[in-house]
Design brief:
The chain is built from 12 helices and 7 strands. Helix 5 links the parallel strand 5 and strand 6.
């Protein structure tokens, strides 16, 4: 199977390419940057290049559309409204139209839970992109899966996080590991390959939590940090030493439909983070590709 990855040299594309190649599939990576390690095929270019897309898309079985500016780029000022329109919105149109003309009927679109932040430029761009996805599915009978992961920039991306602890502070309030997003995406590709969707399917992608619904409903009923200490006994001193707050409650997304449709079960949880923090400290664990 040939899986066309837009933005395949980024964090998620890097992990996906490895997983696809390991199981015998061919990842086809379109990106303006070359990949960190070679898996499958690499094509230098942008999703905004209409002629290039028309030339390179034919022959693929499924498209995973990842390319786009993210919330991080908005917060840091690396992208403005023009950038988000050109790459996120217009680039998504170009991908869907080129896929249609290439006879590709299966598309996994990587959206974001930040779609809830519609006044924000990034969230609004995702709203518009999802509308495009719905339009192509309705007009052209395309089988479209929309995944809405939480932010998933990994700790090993040192252009964003200077240390494991800095990443842990971001992860602390509820998040998803890039490996789990890759797992969900791969399961989404497999779903589209075996089943025709009659309407676009939108699924949230969150991480794994040891906290139960009852824990969250009665958070810290016995005092600040009490829920954390009960679930992770003896770890409060560790997290406080690294500037993490055991009294901070995580936000959790409903993934019942994601589990039902994809069989998705996230693997990385706060317990994994605590174990890695205890074992490796600031540097974090080595990440093996």
């Amino acid at each position: 199977m040939r899986v066309f990855l837009t933005g395949g040299s980024g964090d998620l594309g890097r992990v996906l390419s490895r997983l696809l190649a390991a199981r015998g599939d061919t990842p086809v990576n379109l990106d303006i940057r070359p990949p960190a390690e070679p898996h499958g095929e690499y094509i230098a270019g942008s999703v905004t290049d209409r002629a290039l897309l028309r030339r390179v898309l034919p022959g693929s079985d499924c498209v995973v559309h990842i390319a786009g500016w993210h919330g991080y780029h908005l917060v840091t000022g690396k992208a403005d409204a023009y950038d988000f329109w050109d790459l996120n919105v217009n680039g998504t149109f170009e991908v869907f139209e080129a896929a249609l003309r290439a006879g590709i009927s299966r598309v996994v679109y990587i959206s974001s839970v930040d779609i809830e932040l519609t006044p924000q430029i990034y969230g609004h761009s995702k709203v518009l992109c999802e509308e495009l996805a719905h339009g192509y599915a309705a007009r052209h009978d395309m089988s479209v899966l929309i995944l809405r992961p939480r932010a998933f920039i990994p700790y090993w991306n040192r252009t964003v996080y200077s240390s494991y602890v800095e990443w842990a502070k971001w992860y602390w309030g509820g998040a998803v590991h890039v490996d789990d997003v890759a797992q969900a995406t791969l399961k989404g590709v497999d779903l589209l390959m075996r089943q025709k969707l009659t309407a676009p399917l939108t699924l949230a992608v969150d991480g794994k939590y040891e906290y139960t619904a009852a824990d969250l409903d009665a958070w810290d009923a016995d005092g600040p940090g009490s829920t954390f200490e009960r679930v992770y006994p003896g770890k409060s001193a560790l997290v406080r030493a690294h500037g993490l707050d055991p009294a901070q409650a995580p936000s959790v997304y409903d993934m019942s439909e994601t589990r039902r449709w994809l069989g998705y079960e996230p693997a990385f949880s706060l317990r994994n983070l605590l174990d890695e923090l205890e074992s490796y400290g600031e540097a974090g664990p080595p990440y093996e590709f």
